Protein: Cytochrome P450
Organism: Rhizophagus irregularis
Amino acid sequence: MIEVSMFQLFVIFVIILYIVRRPRIGENEPPLVPYTIPILGHTYNYLFNTKKFIKECKEQYGDCFSIYIFGEVMTILSRDTLTEVFRNPDNFDMISATKETFPLDQLLPYSDDKPEFHARTAREQVSGKLDINIGIVQKYLIKGIENSIGDCNEPKVVYNAWNLINYIIALPIANVLVGEEAASHEDLVKALGDLAFDLGPLLVIPPILFFIHKKLHEFVLTIPFKFGWSPVSRHRDIVVNRLRPVVEKRLKERKELGDNYKPYNDLLDYYMSRPNFDNTKPNNLHFHVDNLFSISFAAINTTSRAAVDALYDMAGRPEVLNELYEEALAFDKECNGSVTLADVQNMVKLDSLVKESLRHAGNIINLSHHMVSKSYTFSNGFTIPEGRKISLYSDDMLKAKENFGDDAEEFKPFRFVNAKSPATKVDRSYIVFGGGRHACPGRFFAINETKLFLHKVILNYKISTKSGKIEDKIFIGPLTSPSQSGLVFENRVKNN
């Protein structure tokens, strides 16, 4: 009788895995970068040496090449091939690629799964009403700053500033989404603001189980959901409980006032006006709350990230902060402390800083992968087969010398002051918000709220880094997170 040891079984398993997972590259495909570690391929370098690794691959193999990570071939695109993805969105499916590693459809099971609906809602009901809502945004930014930063007569040091800034940014967004009555509850604002932080770890968990089978990652990730636990459930319960009496009150008003009912200017009232809103049906409110989460998940987290990055970029450069203060002071005197949307848009130096800060966000690879929905041949002759996952080398595009000059790698806060190129403008080189017809529809709200927040902070505080240096971001594989080093806030001395 032959005894097979565990080690022998492991060796056999590894050999089978190697044969099954060996990458196969077809004719006219982008070159596959050679690797020396079987099965793992380029996974280690992709996770722990991303910037250097991807840059060297691009220098040696060109703007379009493939790497082997997590048991599959991924094609990396930059420059011209990257922009072709934005011009031909029907050939590249971002939703399917995202679901493989981040099962948002299971996290928000009640939500409308049509991204077109959420995009239209963000464009028309959020960004499209910013001129109407700018007063609300300003009011609650000031309230949030006063409550969260407050008096700094003695210098106040804040560590991990993203958490603090996230709540401040969430406060006005919550008021725009659900109205002032519902957003008066701190737990609702916190639920909307914390949602992305609680889901964030799921985004960055390496899909190690892809080495065995793609479905295993999703299966293991979603096991807790099958037993009733979800990082979304407690947030949903809070929001549903806070919204239910508000909804019932508004329904009563509609019934009593009829044609004289004056709609509330928030996203909740928009949802209540849709034909599929029926508060008598079980879980109908859950459906609309999950739709609300789909909007807030992106809106709050990305806006607060832009704001905290810009804060660190200013804090490490006192000469820049002084110049921005002069601009802020001029607008404040002209409008007597209450700026309009036009005022915010005309803050050209602040706009330039925000755009340059976004350009230097540091993510090497675009967070959102795409799946090739049908075989596609790029203008350079390379063909990518159906089902292949692609990723966009965004940092390369955002630092291209042909687009931003020989000093493209440098952080120049006022680079765009005279360029007639606001931070909201999408073009082939500035791809922070994507491109083409699927460019982020909420960017107008996000940029203007970020600028208004920074404007109020600059007017009230001197900001510096505790170290006195320009702080670097934290790398997590190909992505970055804001520094957690200390930010120092100190009251400005107001001149009468």
